[in-house]
Each structure stands twice: as structure tokens, then as C-alpha cells.
């Protein structure tokens, strides 16, 4: 995965931008230096723009911590002496699913 703008990111209040011959209200996602990284689509309803922007910010801001936690869980399962730990049918965890999720989130 290539380097991205460092988190945390934030959403900012809607503002007006010029589009073609008209104007539209959009919500920006900014970095900690208040640089605009992306704006929402003006073709989406305002409430949905806000919800989409918040969803993106939440996912991006928590991504690194979630991947780190899943890596830690996978390591604990792998290093465990408990015979049932990596067997979902016996109350354990699905190590393959955890590793696949980490791979999906990091490639």
C-alpha cells in the first residue's frame, strides 16, 4: 500500500463550490493541517454527504489500529498452546479469516 496523508482526518462544515455554471454544497475531509484531501459529491443529498464523509473519516482514522489489533490476535492464536484456539468449531477463532481480512485491508 502506498503512503497516504497521515491521520487523523476530520470533516468540515458544508461549504459552497463552483461547478460549471452553478454552485453546490459539499463537505470536505481534511487532514490535521486543515488541507482538503477530498470533497463529497454534490450530486448526493446533503445528509448523505455528511454521513458518507463521517464514515470515510471513521474508517481511515481507525484503520491502522484495527489492523494492528488483528495482527496481534492472529499472533496470539498462532502462539497459543491451547489446542482449540484456532478451531472455530470448538469455540476458537478462524485464523484464516483473520489473516485474509488483514491482507484485504493492507494490500
What would you say this structure looks like, in words?
- A hairpin with a 2-residue loop joins strand 2 (15-19) and strand 3 (22-26).
- This protein has one domain (10-106).
- It has 2 helices and 5 strands, in the order βββββαα.
- It is elongated.
- The model has no long low-confidence stretch (mean pLDDT 88).
- The strands form 2 sheets. A 3-stranded antiparallel β-sheet has the order 1-4-5, with helices on one face. Strands 2-3 form a two-stranded antiparallel sheet.
- The protein is an alpha+beta fold and 107 residues long.
Q: Percent of residues in beta strands? A: 15-25%
The major beta sheet can be summarized as:
3 strands, antiparallel
Question: Roughly how many Å apart are the termini?
Answer: 5 Å
Structural class: alpha+beta
Please, how many domains? 1
- Element order: H for helix, E for strand: EEEEEHH
Helix tally?
Answer: 2
The tally of strands reads: 5
Unreliable stretches covering 5 or more consecutive residues:
none
Average of the residue pLDDT scores: 88
Cα-atom Rg, whole angstroms? 20 Å
| Major beta sheet, strand line-up | 1-4-5
Topology of helices and strands:
Layout: E1 10-11, E2 15-19, E3 22-26, E4 28-30, E5 36-39, H1 46-79, H2 95-106
Antiparallel strand pairs: 1-4, 2-3, 4-5
Helix pairs in contact: 1-2
Amino acid at each position: 500500500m502506498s503512503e497516504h496523508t497521515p491521520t487523523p482526518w476530520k470533516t468540515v462544515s458544508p461549504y459552497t463550490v463552483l461547478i460549471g455554471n452553478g454552485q453546490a454544497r459539499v463537505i470536505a475531509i481534511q487532514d490535521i493541517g486543515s488541507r482538503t484531501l477530498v470533497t463529497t459529491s454534490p450530486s448526493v443529498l446533503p445528509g448523505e454527504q455528511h454521513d458518507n464523509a463521517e464514515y470515510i473519516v471513521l474508517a481511515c482514522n481507525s484503520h491502522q489500529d484495527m489492523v494492528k489489533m488483528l495482527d496481534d490476535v492472529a499472533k496470539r492464536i498462532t502462539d497459543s498452546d491451547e489446542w482449540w484456539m484456532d478451531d472455530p468449531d470448538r469455540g476458537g477463532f478462524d485464523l484464516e479469516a483473520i489473516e485474509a481480512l488483514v491482507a484485504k485491508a493492507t494490500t
